[in-house]
Amino acid sequence: MLETLFWISAAAIIYTYLGYPIAVWLLGSVLKLRIHKTSITPSVSVVIACHNEERNIDARIRNVLECEYPGHLVEIIVVSDGSTDRTAEVAQRIASGLVTVLSYDRRRGKAAALNLGVAFATGEITLFADARQSFDSNVIKELVANFGDPSVGAVSGELLLESSRGSSVGEGVGLYWKYEKWIRKSESRAGSVIGATGAIFAIRKELWRPLPEATILDDVYTPMQIALSGKRVIFEEKAIARDKTAESSGKEFTRKVRTLTGNYQLCQLMPRLLLPTSLLVLRFYSHKLMRLLAPIFFIVLLATSAMLVSRPDVGIIYQAALVSQVVFYGSVLVAALSLKRNRRVPVLNFAYVFSLMNAAALVGLFYFVIGKRNVWAREH
């Protein structure tokens, strides 16, 4: 029994972080499902849902207005969700025929803010953006060109993360994010991406379905709805939004807990994701659900390794497995101590961030069970 649990856990971990990424990369390399991009100029509504973004909202609106796209075809809708600062006031200074500001006093959550914003949107394409990031000037043009292909229902842009000054986890988060984007690019070439980047993704307005109340991951719920309807959700690496990594491991941990709690919630909101009835759902299993289970497999692997090594006739494989795990977790501890002294070693930093994200999955499960939700934490 111990050996069976050991090998099941080892196989699950290898599949989650190595097997699936390689498999979808190979599938994408073989299929190479191309997008027939065309120079089209449909009307675009940029929806920015925000809460207490007084410091960022002015620059954000001006950044969108400066994008290389016919100005009369772009409208910006800012929804201030119960902000207690001057977010709405600052946004209203720029309000014009192209900028609409919607504001209300009682905080309702991001899902409600997005539902309201899209209800007011008149463009053929709805582009979702956050208040913190900035777009490169070609973003709207590059995203929209993909909708010239009738098979495309949603397009996710690329988020480039720059390490914040003094960030304790910048290098590790940056490496992990590059790994994640590699998977998304492969999924896009093989059919559809599992989710989008909340800071920069666009959809055909006609495919929008209102978000359930208190939805955490709108940037996965909406793209999955579109993909399940038969349209492709693709990744456009030429459309770039820029942001900075979290300043501390604590903030990054909070962000990741939110994301993983949202993945649990998705299974509740979309029960069909629990039934492996299509290749798309199997990808969701592999990309999202297996990440949620990974920390449990890590715990089982460590426990079974330790118990197997205590046997007199133990094989060298189990000994090597235990030693390698002890070395890995020891490096995580060293990284944590080094970060406290403001010393960073990239390899150790990555191990620390990787462990942090797996710990966040366990906390996310606990938060989901007790009903705790945080819809305005930092997100990528």
CATH topology of the domain at 44-247: Spore Coat Polysaccharide Biosynthesis Protein SpsA, Chain A
The CA-CA distance between the termini, in Å, is 40 Å
Strand order of the largest sheet: 3-2-1-4-7-6-8-5
Rounded average pLDDT: 87
If helices are DSSP runs of H or I spanning 4 or more residues, what is the number of helices?
11
- The amount of helix comes to 40-55%
Rounded to an integer in angstroms, the radius of gyration calculated over CA atoms is 22 Å
- Let me know the CATH homologous superfamily of the domain at 44-247: Spore Coat Polysaccharide Biosynthesis Protein SpsA, Chain A
Spatial shape: globular
Biggest beta sheet summary: 8 strands, mixed
Give the CATH architecture of the domain at 44-247.
Alpha-Beta Complex
> Strand tally, please?
8
Question: What letter string, H or E per element, gives the SSE order?
Answer: HEHEHEHEEHEHEHEHHHH
Based on secondary structure, the structural category is alpha/beta
Strand content: 15-25%
Commentary on this structure:
By secondary structure, this protein is an alpha/beta fold. The chain has a domain at 44-247: Spore Coat Polysaccharide Biosynthesis Protein SpsA, Chain A. It contains eleven helices and eight strands. The chain has helices at residues 2-31, 57-65, 87-92, 110-120, 139-145, 170-190, 218-228, 249-269, 279-309, 316-340, 346-370, and strands at 44-50, 74-81, 99-104, 125-129, 134-135, 152-162, 200-204, 232-244. It has an eight-stranded mixed sheet, with helices on both faces. The longest helix is centred in the C-terminal third of the chain and has 31 residues, at 279-309. The radius of gyration is 22 Å and the shape is globular. The two termini are 40 Å apart.
